[in-house]
Amino acid sequence: DKRIRVSQPLTRGPSAFIPEKEVVQANTVDERTNLLVEEYSTSGRLDNITQVMSLHTQYLESFLRSQFYMLRMDGPLPLPHRHYIAIMAAARHQCSYLINMHVDEFLKTGGIAEWLNGLEYVPQRLKNLNEINKLLAHRPWLITKEHIQKLVKTGENNWSLPELVHAVVLLTHYHALASFVFGSGINPERDPEISNGFRIISVNNFCVCDLANDNNIENASLAGNNFGIVDSLSELEALMERMKRLQEEREDEDTSQEEMTTRFEKEKKESLFVVSGDTFHSFPHSDFDDDMIITSDVSRYIEDPGYGYEDFARRGEEHLPTFRAQDYTWENHGFSLVNRLYSDIGHLLDEKFRMVYNLTYNTMATHEDVDTTTLRRALFNYVHCMFGIRYDDYDYGEVNQLLERSLKVYIKTVTCYPERTTKRMYDSYWRQFKHSEKVHVNLLLMEARMQAELLYALRAITRHLT
């Protein structure tokens, strides 16, 4: 029997990265959070994700509403299938936290227990989602209308377009949520009631909390970096200074389209080297091998477990094709397609994207009255840049000015290989900032990632329709 009992988290509270008192304070004050949970939580309790997100109640509301809608409200897919798709998505990043949660809900909504033995036990049409699950999670730019055609034209196992859109929304939601879980160091739930035998999964014989404590990768590049030299206060001052300067320069300078394209290509190329160049090449390969061994509990839900985000620039393959955001935007194209095929989800997602993008308290660490727009935009656009999405009207030079190296390493890891995130990476950037500000970063990364995956999938569906 491969099931291993998960050891108790080494840190108490909902997150291994954030002191418990910070999260608890937010929750005790906020009656609103409890009301939201009563209304929209599918598990019916205040789980660790919700507790950490409740540092931003406004956002939490849009998040819970859209998640509740895709899991519980009228929609093309039967309830158990929704949870099974969530499990398949979370398994791409070995996210045992989300897998456990949805195994539980899958059974509660009447799912067939046998399916939990692995993909060979599920109906063919669910199995057919493997390819698109894999591509969306790791290389969404490879999705073509042929993938869509294959799913909607396979005879008795075919997917209708509304069902497929529902599935795609779930897959992208749970890939992105896995980024949030690992990026925020979410601890396993301590839940004595869970008795079903499928409950207890751990990855690589240590629990998620150990990942948070760096037992998986000692992050050599960050340890050896020169962060000690610049103390964190001046790091904050320097960042504010750069934001101010960019604001002023933007009013003066008129950069040519050509120069803007060059800056994007440069940033895109550099982003490919961010983690891999720094972190992994500084280890003998053997340290890293066990990271790739996925316990059978997780691997039973996926095919091709070795498939991951591709740093193709390093492998000398052709470059990541640029997706010009103007050609297919969420606002003008994605939103209406989603809404047409799976009514109302478009509005809920749109509200959630806007909410996180515009969320601000006009503070940075100890400073008040700060306009953080440039910083939020740099974070969002950098994630899209790693997925090959380019905004014509954005100067990618700003990314380099605003996001220092350790933050880029963190963003890349959380977005592309969330299961490798460590507490040291989380601690290494923005050391003066409040934890709630770092959680805000994780919310931005999660939503930017979800939107990027969705855009590629919806563009392929649109091409299939035309």
Automatic annotation (TrEMBL):
Family named by the database record: Belongs to the sestrin family.
Coiled coil start-end: 229-263
GN (gene name): SESN3
Full protein name: Sestrin 3
Keywords, alphabetical: Coiled coil, Cytoplasm, Oxidoreductase
Molecular-function annotations in GO: L-leucine binding; oxidoreductase activity, acting on peroxide as acceptor
Pfam families hit by this protein: PA26 (PF04636)
Origin: domain of life: Eukaryota
Reactions this protein catalyses: a hydroperoxide + L-cysteinyl-[protein] = S-hydroxy-L-cysteinyl-[protein] + an alcohol
Cellular compartments annotated: Cytoplasm
